[in-house]
């Protein structure tokens, strides 16, 4: 398994990226290998500083960088020798099995659309995040920021993607999927939520359990996968991250609160595309980079592409003219 890492895209590149790659090596499975995309001289300088042998990595030297303030689509097309663009070339050519970057999110999505593209039948890809459940399990929330405005059919597809990802990454045999709403009743919510409920309530594509309210997420009593639009999902994600900072400020340290720290996951996979792509925080620490790489390894092993392609060929979604 070859895991590609863009070491030039983050706010503290390439130092934090290289340090994170060094830290993660003992935790990767023996069959996994890291390929670093970036300036070879800078990469080796960080390795030397830590007394680490850079030959432990395969380094693909690049001469350009896509910055956080670059125009996403223009930068991706105008900087073909950037670490990000080169990583996507390797991914689309099959030279690496997954690609992770803490760089410009818009440019990462441009890279997805220009190279690996969305799986046939997927209207829009999305991003997800794991959230802790009080008993130690994990739940999955999606979308958490890629699509602020969604149609009912988008939410329906997110439910399929979330169910499949939970099966592969969390080991859930038949994950319970709920629609985030302002009440449990079928008639509650805005127009999109009501229409999405109508699409989901009799489906055989996933195990739909109905609406769920925000105060039920982390109890885990009702759902394993929670679906919402990217606007709401991102607000929940950022609020959850703030709980970690508030707890730390008050000197409260628990396993539960530590799991609300973004560093614990490092990055989130783009679901619905033809290869594993992980997007991380621009300000990622070495710990966050380490966990982003582990998340990439886990996503590759989940074999989402095979699962999603097979399901969308047979999904009732594609057979119902009202959903297209």
Descriptive notes:
It is built from eleven helices and eleven strands. The chain has 324 residues and is an alpha/beta fold. Strand 7, helix 7 (191-200) and strand 8 (207-212) form a beta-alpha-beta unit. Helix 1 (15-24) crosses helix 10, helix 4 packs parallel to helix 5 (105-116) and helix 6 (152-170) packs across helix 7. The protein is globular, with a radius of gyration of 20 Å.
List keywords for this structure.
324 residues, alpha/beta, 40% helix, globular, disordered C terminus
Classify the helix fraction into a percent range. Answer: 40-55%
User: In order across it, which strands form the biggest sheet?
Assistant: 3-2-1-4-11-10-5-6-9-7-8
Largest sheet, described in full?
11 strands, mixed
Radius of gyration: 20 Å
Number of helices: 11
Number of β-strand runs: 11
Beta percentage is 15-25%
Instruction: List unreliable stretches of 5+ residues.
Output: 319-324
Distance separating the two termini? 37 Å
Summing up helix and strand content along with how strands pair, one would put the structural category as alpha/beta
Q: Which geometry do the CA atoms define?
A: globular
Whole-number mean pLDDT = 90
Order of helices and strands: EHEHEHHEHEEHEHEEHHEEHH
């Amino acid at each position: 398994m070859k895991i590609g890492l863009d070491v030039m895209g983050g706010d503290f590149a390439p130092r934090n990226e290289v340090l994170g790659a060094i830290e993660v090596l003992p935790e990767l499975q023996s069959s996994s290998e890291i390929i670093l995309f970036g300036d070879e001289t800078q990469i080796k300088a960080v390795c030397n500083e830590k007394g680490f042998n850079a030959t432990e990595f395969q380094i693909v030297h690049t001469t350009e960088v896509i910055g956080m303030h670059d125009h996403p689509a223009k930068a991706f097309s105008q900087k073909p020798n950037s670490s990000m663009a080169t990583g996507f070339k390797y991914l689309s050519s099959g030279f690496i099995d997954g690609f992770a970057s803490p760089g410009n999110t818009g440019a990462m999505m441009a890279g997805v659309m220009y190279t690996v593209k969305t799986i046939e039948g997927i209207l829009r890809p999305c991003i997800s995040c794991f959230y802790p459940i009080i008993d130690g399990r994990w739940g999955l929330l999606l979308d958490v920021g890629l699509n602020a405005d969604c149609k009912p059919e988008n939410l329906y597809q997110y439910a399929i993607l979330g169910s499949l990802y939970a099966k592969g990454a969390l080991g859930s045999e038949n994950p319970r999927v709920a629609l985030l709403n302002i009440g449990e009743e079928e008639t509650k919510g805005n127009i999109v939520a009501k229409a999405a409920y109508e699409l989901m309530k009799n489906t055989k594509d996933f195990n739909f359990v109905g609406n769920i309210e925000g105060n039920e997420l982390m109890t885990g009593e009702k759902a394993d996968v929670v679906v919402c639009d990217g606007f709401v999902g991102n607000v929940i994600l950022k609020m959850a991250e703030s709980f970690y900072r508030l707890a730390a400020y008050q000197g409260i340290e628990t396993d539960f609160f530590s799991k609300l720290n973004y560093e614990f996951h490092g990055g989130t996979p783009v679901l619905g595309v033809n290869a594993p792509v992980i997007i991380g925080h621009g300000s990622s620490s070495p710990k966050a980079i380490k966990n982003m790489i582990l998340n990439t390894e886990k996503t590759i092993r989940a074999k989402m592409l095979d699962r999603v392609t097979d399901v969308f060929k047979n999904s009732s979604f594609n057979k119902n003219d009202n959903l297209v």
